[in-house]
Design a protein that fits this description.
Number of strands: 7
Strand order of the largest sheet: 2-3-1-4-7
Helix content: 40-55%
Number of domains: 1
Structural class: alpha/beta
Order of helices and strands: EHEHHHEHEHEEHEH
Largest sheet: 5 strands, parallel
Number of helices: 8
CATH superfamily: P-loop containing nucleotide triphosphate hydrolases
Length: 213
């Protein structure tokens, strides 16, 4: 299987990607994670991407496309892959088509996670992150043992810039403006499968096996 994950920030794409990876033994290619790593390491790509990410804007295609192309050249994608967070624009989708054509393969699924803005804002605004070891917590579903302190390293937890409510709303607006064309594109190709973002965690494995076939 060769799957792309579609859905607004905070909808549960990452959770689904990890379950699919476990079920079918495929690597997850997460552009967000790669970009944040580049920011932490202050690489050339990271420094270019940081100002966009802090505002909640999409990172320019030329930066993201280069990272993805490099990653897709590695041998572990031969048996299948899950792309989480890419493509996010028609330009990126065109680039992905070119990359896959060069490899002689095609996408098999575009998994679209559907969830309301209200639930997304509630989820993301309650996330907290550790600036030292990068562990992620949630004030409701995964709180730290001691309020405001990382369980792993004892550092003070922070609210990421892109998890502040005004930035979340802007990210959702940007997502909708850029992604509706992708949904239409993959719908025309017969690749879309939908997943309800409110399905409880304990039911996700069976749900994903059912919709992916």
């Amino acid at each position: 299987m060769r799957i792309i994950m579609l859905g607004p920030p905070g909808s549960g794409k990452g959770t689904r990607a990890h379950i699919i990876s476990e079920l079918y033994g495929m690597p997850i290619i997460t552009t967000g994670g790669m970009l944040r790593g580049a920011v932490r390491e202050k690489t050339e790509y990271g420094q270019k991407a940081k100002s966009y990410m802090d505002r909640g804007d999409l990172v320019p295609d030329n930066i993201v496309n280069g990272i993805v192309k490099e990653r897709m050249s590695k041998p572990d994608v031969a048996k299948g892959f899950i792309l989480d967070g890419y493509p996010r624009s028609v330009n990126q989708a065109d680039t992905l088509d070119e990359i896959l054509k060069e490899k002689g393969i095609k996408l098999t699924h575009a998994l679209s996670v559907v969830l309301s803005d209200e639930v997304i804002i509630e989820r993301l605004s309650k996330r907290r992150g550790c600036p030292v070891c990068y562990e992620i917590y949630h004030l409701v579903s995964k709180p730290p043992k001691k309020e405001g302190v990382c369980d792993r390293c004892g550092a003070k937890l922070i609210l990421r810039e892109d998890d502040k409510e005004d930035v979340i709303k802007y990210r959702l607006q940007v997502y909708k403006e850029n992604t509706h064309q992708l949904l239409e594109r993959y719908e025309r190709l017969g690749l879309i499968v939908e997943s309800d973002g409110e399905i409880p965690l304990e039911g996700l494995r069976d749900h994903l096996k059912e919709i992916l076939g």
